[in-house]
Description:
Layout: E1 2-7, H1 12-24, E2 28-34, E3 52-56, H2 62-70, E4 74-77, H3 84-89, H4 92-112, E5 115-121, H5 147-166, E6 170-175, E7 177-179, H6 188-197, E8 203-205, E9 211-216, H7 217-230, E10 236-239, E11 244-246, H8 247-257, E12 266-268, H9 283-289, H10 298-311, H11 313-330
Parallel strand pairs: 1-2, 1-4, 2-3, 4-5, 5-6, 6-10, 7-9, 8-12
Antiparallel strand pairs: 9-11
Helix pairs in contact: 1-7, 2-4, 4-5, 6-8, 6-10
Amino acid sequence: MTRVLVTGGAGFIGANFVHRTLRRHGEFEVTVLDALTYAGNRANLESVAGEVNFFHGDICDRELVDRLVRDNDIVVHFAAESHVDNSLSDPQPFIHTNLIGTYTILEAVRRHDRRLHHISTDEVFGDLALDTDEQFTEQTAYDPSSPYSATKAGSDMLVRAWVRSYRVAATISNCANNYGPYQHVEKLIPRQITNLLQGVRPKLYGTGANVREWTHVDDHNDAVHLILAKGRIGETYLIGSGDERSNREIVELTLTLMGEPADAFDHVPDRPGHDLRYSNDSTKIRTELGWQPSYVDFTSGLAATIEWYQENIHWWKAQKEAAEARYATLGR
Length: 332
């Protein structure tokens, strides 16, 4: 058995990674470390609780991280504060988790000579113009625009420095926007779905012209497994489906799939410094490692996601009130 430590394994992408690993990669014994902040939910792992070693703790806890890294073979590092709006109102938790936490993990990996894969975001590159076909590549210069993306950029740089200076066996991946089950209701797609399920009109930042590339969370995690199996140490891989849609298109399609008029939404003030467009050139991971997304039809993937939220009201109802209260204080 290969022992894998998944940091942030009770969060959205991390929990889906745990489920995917247990279903498709029986050679892995899974341990999860999660602080269970508002975005981490033990219920995300309820159906596999008997198959996972779970530890409730902070990735900045040096002694705990050291012990868990020592007792595992691979670390897949998902743990992060990840919401742009929250980083704009209070950057401190992002500094703590994304920078100090990543440093703590890197030092433990270095001490015990363990393999690390670091999960990052395409937001570290800043944004692209709306009227261009330009894409981010592994060589694109970093230009983060929010405290969230700045701290993720910093964590990427820490990983690269530890690879070069200390020969830590690490890889990095930067993914486009994810969607799928277990995503917190503060995020664009689940927020609109749950609003509609509660009879509330969806809300759209500004004109909704901002464009994102959408990748299903299972496709993302399949890419991570390929990197673990075949990725070259020290390399960065960009992950993206190639399916780009404006935020307005997302809201309109969600409304249509849920039987509502496509224009039944409200505009709210735009987010400060709102990035215009993200798009990843995923040629490297496709050609070198053979990755291909399974969810090639976004509409069917979104319909399946809507169905999951319809069938799991008990999972999101409690967090919905708190999320909307935070949005209300921001006027969005």
